[in-house]
Automatic annotation (TrEMBL):
Bias-annotated ranges (Polar residues): 84-107
Region entry Disordered, spans: 54-121
Protein name per the record: YNR023Wp-like protein
Top-rank lineage group of the source organism: Eukaryota
Organism of this sequence: Saccharomyces cerevisiae (strain AWRI1631) (Baker's yeast)
Family annotation (InterPro entries): SWIB_MDM2_dom_sf
Length: 427
């Protein structure tokens, strides 16, 4: 091996490339706005699978994958840093220079050098970034740096994030052909198929279920929306005529019997259990080009993601609607039980009056049992005083009753007289 080949080999050993996966929400928010939602806010995971060439002598390598704010900014504490150790060495472990005057040996040396140079591309392990709710990071780009001097093919899988309260799902091809949507929530799928049935007049009898479903669409609880819609539909004994599009939703066992109609509840349950699939990742076949100085911006894709602000607003609005619905329901129930409450209040008042009268009788008979003469004299005096009060013959001096001290000194007597008048209906 001559000196030039050794230099070329050393250059290949030190060659590296960087692949950047970058994204940004297309909105009117400025890029330097600190409140702007970053790329990682919409992504659940990113997986890059490299397609290695068949070469068992090449050692595997793991390297860094670091998301950054942009191409010029350095990494911050909040940025992701996946540390994967690099293990790289020449297969033969020998970089010595060999010279020989013999032409055959020189030819063999050149072939060996070419073989060594072609084997400098290490095996590349898969890279995966997963969103961690306990340690969230915000970034717009994920950089993957590797050692290598040859083009590398890979598959990039991007899984979009969805709200846990209203998860996005993939629709089956049969369902997509009918409603025109490839993904969405289970509520959207059920509502869309119901709308298709209604517009094509496939509901044979009671169409009030559609109006009920429209009401549930605007006031549903997202955690139980599909089950509530199915319950609402089950309350209507509705039969659906199966056209050529709806028949494609049926399993093979039912297609053989060629049914003309089907219960609405059975059709909706079939869609919910068979045609709603977990959200599939977006897969991109990509080739890392090392024969070009830069390929930045050559591959650009538009990916539909859920609106985070809309989800937050919808959740808040939905909670308000649920709270208002519960409040109205409680008010309605209160109006229904108000007559019962009034009747019970009347019974309680009657019981209290009876207890008060029983207490008066108890005290009277207790006094008689302890001292009959004294108790009877007090009773006669009280009755005589009550008679005077009722007849108005108390004989108060007008000058005396005009003074405030009279009411302070005779408060107990005046209170008793007022009670006598009230109890006898004189006021």
């Amino acid at each position: 091996m001559d000196t030039n080949n050794e230099a070329d080999l050393m250059a290949l050993e030190n060659a590296t490339w960087t692949m950047r996966i970058e994204g940004r929400l297309l909105d009117n928010v400025q890029a330097n706005d600190p409140a702007r939602e970053k790329f990682s806010s919409f992504i659940e995971s990113i997986v890059v699978d490299f397609k290695n060439k068949e070469n068992d002598n090449v050692p595997s390598t793991k390297f860094n994958a670091a998301p950054e704010e942009n191409a010029t900014e350095g990494p911050s504490d909040k940025k992701l840093n996946l540390n994967l150790p690099l293990q790289f060495s020449l297969p033969n472990g020998d970089n010595s220079t060999t010279t020989n005057a013999d032409q055959n040996n020189a030819t063999m040396g050149e072939e060996t050098a070419k073989k060594d140079m072609s084997s400098t591309t290490p095996k590349l392990e898969s890279v995966k970034w997963q969103y961690d709710p306990n340690n969230p990071v915000d970034f717009d780009g994920l950089d993957i740096k590797r050692v290598g001097s040859e083009n590398v093919e890979c598959t990039i899988s991007i899984l979009r994030k969805s709200s846990p309260e209203e998860p996005f799902m993939s629709y089956s091809p049969q369902l997509t052909a009918i409603i025109g949507l490839k993904s969405g929530t289970s509520h959207d799928a059920i509502f869309s198929i119901y709308k298709y049935i209604h517009l094509n007049e496939l509901l044979t009898n009671d169409e009030s279920a559609f109006e009920n479903l429209m009401g549930n669409r605007n006031n549903h609880n997202s955690n139980t929306s599909t089950s509530k819609m199915l319950d609402a539909a089950s309350s209507q004994v509705s039969i659906v005529k199966l056209d050529t599009q709806l028949i494609t939703l049926l399993p093979s066992s039912l297609k053989e019997s060629s049914p003309d109609t089907m219960k609405l509840t059975d059709l909706l349950s079939l869609i919910n259990s068979t045609h709603l699939l977990p959200l599939q990742p977006i897969e991109i076949d990509y080739t890392v080009r090392v024969d070009k100085a830069s390929t930045y911006g050559e591959l650009v894709l538009d990916i539909e993601v859920p609106d985070v602000n809309a989800l937050k607003f919808n959740n808040t609005q939905r909670e308000s609607q649920i709270g208002a619905a519960e409040l109205n329901e409680n008010a309605r129930e209160l109006e229904q039980i108000k007559p019962k409450i009034a009747l019970q209040d009347k019974e309680i008042t009657s019981v209290l009056l009876n207890l008060h009268e029983s207490n008066k009788r108890y005290r009277f008979f207790k006094k008689i049992s302890e001292d009959p003469v004294k108790a009877l004299n007090e009773c006669i005096a009280s009755t005589s005083n009550a008679l005077k009060v009722l007849s108005g013959d108390e004989g108060y001096n007008e000058d005396m009753v005009r003074r405030a001290n009279f009411y302070k000194e005779n408060e107990a007597m005046l209170r008793e007289n007022i009670e006598v008048i009230l109890s006898n209906g004189r006021m």
